[in-house]
Amino acid sequence: MSGDASLSAAEKTLSVLEALADHSRIADIADASGLPKPTVHRILQTLVQRGFARADGQGGYLGGPRILSLAGRFLQRLDITEHVRPTLRDLQERTGWTVHFALLSGDEAVYVAKLEGVRPYHLASRVGMSLRLHCTSIGKAILAALPDDEVRALARRTGLPARTGRTITDVDALLAELTEVRARGYAEDHEENEAGVRAIGAAVFNHTAEVVGAVSAASLVDFAEAPGDLPALVVRAATTVSRALGAD
Predict the structure, then answer these.
(1) CB half-sphere exposure, 69, CA atoms < 13 A
(2) Cβ neighbours of residue 153 under 8 Å, at least 6 residues apart?
(3) Contact at 8 Å (CB) between 95 and 226?
(4) What sequence ranges are listed for the domain IclR-ED (predicted)?
(5) In angstroms, how far is CA 84 from the centroid of its own chain?
(6) How far apart (Å, rounded) are the C-alpha atoms in residues 231 and 226?
(7) For residue 246, what are the CA distances in angstroms to 155, 182, 206, 210, 240?
(8) Residue 15 contacts by C-beta under 8 Å, 6 or more apart in sequence?
(9) Does residue 128 come out as left (phi exceeding 0), alpha (psi in the -120 to 50 range) or beta?
């Protein structure tokens, strides 16, 4: 892109946002957007102030929480959610548990669909809410589809903060857990993100075999009765959603 002076402020901001999806360093964002580094830096500072970007602690920038929130609110209205909703509904009816579908967004995932279970309670999760990857069944299912070095890099960027007394906060322990997830094909959350809640999750892939999110079934521990084939049901639902996204 050339002719910086001829671009409107909105065009410059959008160019930086688009570049931020693939790059974190100011120099790379400047190259991708075609804007001068001082302009990119100024726009990034505004995006940080508004929550659309955040510093990664290493001199770079990542997407901020407002992007996740807006993405979740928009995604729930897109065809992708409606396209996979029958699969999610089938999982909910077969298990009675609350079913979630979340998509990977930066170093977090964001809920784009939620179907309440049959029990007389509602989980605190909601569409548009972001979630950590290291302490949720959805997040661990996603991380298990990534190389260990990427998991370590993410842990360095975000830390592994304890959400409950059961949260895995050591990266080596997390990697050991992910090895088990890969072997069995699904992830478990035993009150690691929220006290009193357990969940089972399985990864979702797109047409390039890239992990893009995960499906989970969750329940309060006190009401956690489920079919003996619950993990298989969750994996089957995630596979069906993956196929809907073009996966082989």
Answers:
(1) 7
(2) none
(3) yes
(4) 66-247
(5) 17
(6) 10
(7) 30, 22, 6, 11, 10
(8) 1, 7, 33, 34, 35
(9) left
Supply the DSSP string of 117-174, one letter for each residue: -SSS---S--TT-EE-STTSHHHHHHHHTS-HHHHHHHHHHH----SSTT----HHHH
Which SS3 state, helix, strand or coil, does residue 228 take? Answer: coil
Q: Which residues contact 23 (CB under 8 A, 6 or more apart)?
A: 29, 32
Q: What is the pTM of this model?
A: 0.69
What value, to the nearest 5°, has the Cα angle with vertex 4 and ends 3 and 6?
70
pLDDT, tens digit (0-9, with 9 covering 90-100), for 182-211: 999 999 999 999 999 999 999 999 888 999
Which of 151, 155, 135, 133 is closest to 68 using CA atoms?
Answer: 133
Q: How far apart are CA 86 and CA 115, in angstroms?
A: 11
Question: What is the token pair recorded at 100?
Answer: 């979630």
Give the residue carrying structure tokens 């897109």: 78
* Tokens 């309060």 sit on residue: 220
**Tens digits of per-residue pLDDT, 77-122?**
556 677 788 999 999 999 999 999 999 988 999 998 999 887 767 7
